[in-house]
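To close the chapter, one final illustration. This time we ask the reader to focus less on the individual chains and more on the assembly as a whole: which components sit near each other, and how the overall shape emerges from the parts.
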Amino acid sequence: MSGLGVWNYLIIIFLMMTGFYMVISSSNLIKKLIGLNVFQTSVFFLYISFGYIEGSAGPVYVEGVDLYSNPLTHVLILTAIVVGVATISVGLALIIRIKESFGTIEEDDLHKMDSSL
Amino acid sequence: MNNHMILRVVGKFLIPYIMLFGLYVQFHGDFGPGGGFQAGVIFASAFVIHTLLFGVRETQKIAPEWILKAVSSAGVLLYAGVGVASLFLGANYLDYDVLGAYPVAGQHLGIILVEFGVGLTVASVIMLIFFTFAARGEVDGDVS
Amino acid sequence: MILEQLIDIFLLAFLAIISIAIVRIRDVFSAVMLFGIYSLVSASLFLMLAAADVAFTEAAVGAGISTILMLATLGLTGREKEKMLVKKKISLLPLVIVVVTGATLIYGIVDLPPFGGADNPAQVHVTPRYTQQSMSEIDVPNLVTAVLASYRGFDTLGEVVVIFTAGVGVLLLIGGRRRREEKHADE
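The assembled structure is written out below.
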C-alpha cells in the first residue's frame, strides 16, 4: 500500500479512537456528543476512502470521462450525515431535559444524585 | 443581537439569496452537486439567520409550527406516494419507469418529485428542531 | 497529482491536531467551536477525495446546523467548564482501552486493498452499472442523485422517515410549554 494510503487509514483510526476516548472518558454530556460526532465523521472518511479511485473525476457525468469515483459510498455517507445531525439533535434535547430535571450535565454529579444510575 | 446595526442589515440582505441558493441546489441537483438533503438544510439556514437576528418569536410568525409539522409530513407522504403511484401503474414500488410516457421521462419525473419530498421534509424538520431549541431558551433570555 | 497528495496529507494532519485540541480543551464552548472547524476541514477533505456532494452536505450540516444546535444547547444548559477529573487514576483505563482497540484496528490496515485502486472490491460489484449504464437508464448527469433517488430509492425513503422521526422525538422531548413556573413554586 502506498504511503498516502497508510497515512490516510492511520489518521482515520486515530480520529475514531479520539472520538471513542471522548465518549468514555469525558464527564460533560455535550463533550460526549462531540466525541460521538468525531467518531461518526471518521467512519465517513473510511467509506469515502474506499470509494476513492486515484485520478478519478467526481461522480457527475461529463462527456469523454470514463473514470468516476464510486457514487454508492457517496450516497450512503450523504444520507448518513443528515441523519446524523437529526439523531444528534435528539441527544441534545435529552441533555436539555437532564439539565432541567437534575440541574447539571456532568455525568459524575448525576451519578452522585441518583445512585440507581 | 438587537444593537448590532451592521449585522442586522447585512443579515437581512443575505436571507433571500440564501433561499434562492437553496432552491437552485434543490432543482439543479440532477445536473451538478446538490439535491434534496443539501437544499433542505440550506433553506432552513436562512430561517436560522432570521432567528438569530430578530428572535424566535418573530420567525415563528413567518413559519408557524403547525405549517412546519404539516410540511414535514407532506414531504414523507409525497415520497411514499410516488412509490404508491408506481405501484398502481403496474410496476414495483418506487420504480419510476412507468410514471412518464417512456422510461427515462418517468425516471426524471420520479426523481424530481422524490427529491422535492426529501427537501420539504429536511427543511421543515431542521427548522422545527431549531425553533424548538430556541423557543426553549426564550423564557430565560435570548438563546442567541 | 503530487500537490493533491500534499493537500491530502496536510488536511489529515489538521484533522488529527484539531481532534486532540477538542479532547484537551476544558471549555465546552471552545470545544463546540473547534468542532465547527473540524467539520469544515473534513468538508475540504471530502472534496479532495472527489466527493463533491458529500463535501457540500458536510459543510452545510456539520459546520452549520450541528454547531448552531450545540450552541443553542449550551445557551440552555449554561456555559460550564468541564470539571477537572479529580480521580486521575481512573482516567487511565479509557486510555488503555482506546490504545488497545486502536492497535487492533491498525493491525487490520495491513489487509485493506490499496488506497485509490481502480479494481478494489468496492469498485467491481454494482458500481460499474451505476457509472456506465445510468446515463441510458436514468439520464441524470449527477450519478449520486441517480443512485440516491432511483437505484436506492427505498433506502432513501427510510432515511427520510428517520429524519422525520427525529423531529417528532425532539418535539416530544422539549416541545410545547415548559413548566418551569410550577417547578419553582414547588421548590
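Residues 103-138 of chain B form the longest helix (36 residues). Chain B touches chain A through 14 residues (CB under 8 Å). With these observations in hand, you are ready for the problems at the end of the chapter.
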